[in-house]
Design brief:
9 strands; 18% strand; 10 helices; 308 residues; alpha/beta
């Protein structure tokens, strides 16, 4: 009991079988003490909430009256957590090993300048996200929302998530907030998280939802966090790049135009929520981003040249 408490959180959305895998993976961890929090954000039913009370009485569960924006639910979970450290999971993500969390907690305990650890993240097919799949600890500029651990105190100091946008795009905002504290984000390869690629409970066109969020919230993160004068460059540049990717690379011009209209409509709310970080820390984030992307590309080129 001398080790710090770690709070492991899940957001449930109509996928009880997947959520059970995640909870069981948390209970199987070698690390203790842990606290498990679940928000049942499912529409029109409290089935998961009632099931949790029956099957997992050690889990602390909350039921929303109606579905809330995912960033708002994440903020609720952090506000309710008792742990020094907090881990985010989706209801279709889980730990893939038992021992790594012990070293992750020790690493954060020994490195106060690190606010956040981005875990190794892949899917049930054994395919790993190339941005979070290297063999060694290193600095990075962002993380995957269902494969991350951070200090609860740093989350509050960084300003938490922008609560109003419904789904996707919140990671970059908090990452910039962590940099605004003068802290770093490190990729930590010793905790493996599996995020299952299933269609149950998802939008019928998930690529469209990701694309719309990318057009609105990637530039939106710049608008919320980039200082003057950098915001005048990075907001329009990010908006142009995100829109062009959807229009040209994904070949979905109607989705691109939809996203561009949404971005304009979200401008007032983003400007109202603006809490810029310092120029020094923003440019440190830009340098870290550039270095991380360059290292990832070099590693992928090296992997492609290895013999089978």
């Amino acid at each position: 009991m001398d080790e710090p408490l770690v709070t492991i959180t899940f957001v449930a959305w109509m996928r009880r079988e997947m959520l059970q895998k995640g909870i069981e993976s948390a209970l199987a961890l070698a690390y203790r003490p842990i606290e498990i929090l679940v928000v049942d954000n499912s529409p029109s039913s409290d089935e998961i909430y009632r099931w949790l009370g029956k099957e997992y009485p050690m889990v602390k569960a909350i039921k929303t009256f109606h579905p809330l924006p995912l960033p708002m639910v994440r903020n609720m979970l952090v506000a309710s957590a008792r742990g020094k450290y907090v881990i985010f999971h989706d209801d279709d993500s889980r730990f893939a090993e038992r021992a790594g969390l012990c070293s992750a907690v020790k690493y954060l305990d020994q490195n106060e300048h690190v606010a956040c650890l981005a875990f190794r993240q892949g899917n049930e097919k054994g395919e790993w996200n190339p941005l979070f799949d290297g063999p060694a600890i290193c600095q990075t500029y962002n993380y995957i929302a269902c494969a991350v651990m951070f200090r609860r105190a740093d989350y509050f100091r960084a300003g938490g998530y922008f609560e109003q946008f419904r789904l996707y795009g919140e990671e970059m905002i908090l990452s910039l907030g962590f940099f605004g504290l003068g802290k770093e984000i490190h990729y930590f390869p010793y905790v493996h998280v599996i995020h299952e690629q299933i269609t149950q409970g998802r939008d019928t066109d998930p690529e469209k939802q990701y694309s719309l969020a990318d057009i609105v919230m990637t530039p939106g993160a710049m608008l919320l966090k980039a200082p003057v004068p950098d915001v005048f460059l990075w907001y329009p540049l990010s908006l142009l790049w995100a829109t062009s990717k959807v229009f040209l690379l994904k070949r979905r011009p109607l989705v691109a135009l939809h996203g561009l209209l949404d971005a304009v409509l979200w401008l007032p709310a983003l400007l109202k929520g603006r809490r810029a970080i310092s120029t020094r820390e923003f440019r440190r984030w830009i340098r870290t981003r550039h270095e991380s992307q360059r290292n990832t590309q070099a590693r992928l080129r090296g992997d492609s040249q290895k013999p089978d």
